[in-house]
Design brief:
Length: 371
């Protein structure tokens, strides 16, 4: 158990003795913490309504991977999206409509059973009112999926196209498309794990071996993610222990979390829904990626504290994500008010401090995070 020391803390989340933070693995990089993440939490209008809090369109799921789509939708709601719509092949709409509760569903035209017809599907997607898109988790592989991904990523003359998050099958589709990053593209966040990242690098003419050890070498991970973001001109989230978030302009952030409990199926789908939800709430893609990764890491540590290093299910994460957001919003509110002195628990490592008035989210361990 992590040792904690009692002392005076400020109610804005900072203590009178700031814990030593881990150094960023690359020059000019930052290590995410409560102070950085809390400043990114979008303010909720007290007179707002569901339409004001972001409309997310999720294009995900298949008969074999129905759970992926459901996890994205639940995470998006818990991260604060006002409206979530799940788009699936028309033949599967009755199945998914019976499974989702808060989300609505939309059938996409098919040219075969479970096979999306790209052109009419694109027309229906563009006709739907949305602020952001998530595409990829659980989608059926195939040429039709790759073509839909290509067409969605292209903005054409629409400079105000909604941002898009690409995960799982959408990333595998990108790896097969030559020069997909060239020309005008809508703003995007790519969320590959190390294997998907290597395929994308190979598809863009880069030898993945030249990137080094992307599982254990933090400096190599940060350097590779920064280079990829600049090449592809999109935000890249390289998942794993100490997840790296890189922007096209060279900015890099690293999450402090190393959490083996997150090494289970579906946790990446939850992250996709969280980041997509924040983009729908009009958080800029790089900021949405940083905040989404941090919320996901805090939630993972909360579940790990209760269950240990094994046994975490992806469905355990959405509720703690909402509580983590609540705590960060409280830190931001107290900081805005100027902070006030009080008696509490002084953290002994990186991450947030457990506040007396916010006991519902556990203080994360110094080392924990999305695997």
């Amino acid at each position: 158990m992590t040792e904690r020391r009692l002392g005076f803390i400020r109610h804005d989340g900072s203590s009178d003795a700031t814990p030593a933070a881990s150094a960023a693995p690359v020059d000019s990089g930052e290590v995410l913490d409560d102070a950085i993440a809390s400043a990114l939490v979008p303010i909720r209008d007290k007179r707002g309504h569901k339409g004001a809090f972001g409309k997310l369109l999720v294009i995900a799921g298949s008969l074999d991977y129905a759970g992926a789509a459901l996890l994205v939708c639940r995470a998006a709601g818990r991260a604060g999206a006002g409206l979530v719509t799940l788009a699936v092949p028309e033949s599967l709409q009755p199945l998914f409509a019976a499974k989702v509760i808060e989300a609505t569903t939309m059938g996409l035209p098919e040219d075969d059973v479970e096979e999306i017809d790209p052109e009419p599907a694109l027309a229906r997607i563009l006709d739907h009112d949305h602020d952001a898109i998530v595409i990829g988790p659980g989608l059926k592989p195939g040429l039709a999926t790759a073509e839909l991904v290509r067409m969605l990523l292209t903005t054409g003359d629409d400079a105000g196209a909604a941002p898009i998050l690409l995960d799982a099958e959408a990333l595998r589709s990108l790896a097969t498309l030559e020069g997909w990053w060239e020309g005008e593209r809508r703003p995007a966040v790519l969320t590959p794990h190390a294997g998907e990242f290597a395929r994308l690098r190979a598809g863009s003419g880069r030898d993945p071996e030249a990137d080094g050890d992307l599982a254990a070498d933090d400096a190599a991970r940060a350097t590779a993610a920064r280079d990829a973001a600049a090449t592809w001109r999109q935000v890249v989230v390289l998942k794993g222990a100490k997840t790296v978030i890189a922007a096209p302009d060279g900015r890099v952030a690293v999450a402090p979390f190393e959490n083996p409990a997150l090494g289970s199926g579906g946790t990446g789908d939850v992250l996709a829904g969280t980041i997509g939800s924040l983009m729908a709430q009009h958080v800029a893609p790089y900021d949405a990626a940083r905040l989404g990764v941090y919320l996901h890491g805090l939630a993972g540590d909360t579940v790990r504290e209760r269950l240990g290093d094994a046994g975490l299910l992806a469905s355990d994460l959405p509720d703690p994500i909402a509580l983590a957001r609540k705590r960060l919003a409280g830190i931001a509110e107290r900081r805005k008010a100027g902070g006030r002195l009080g008696f509490g628990v002084r953290p002994s490592g990186s991450g947030g401090s457990l506040q007396p008035d916010a006991p519902d989210v556990a203080d994360p361990e110094p080392a924990g995070g999305p695997a």
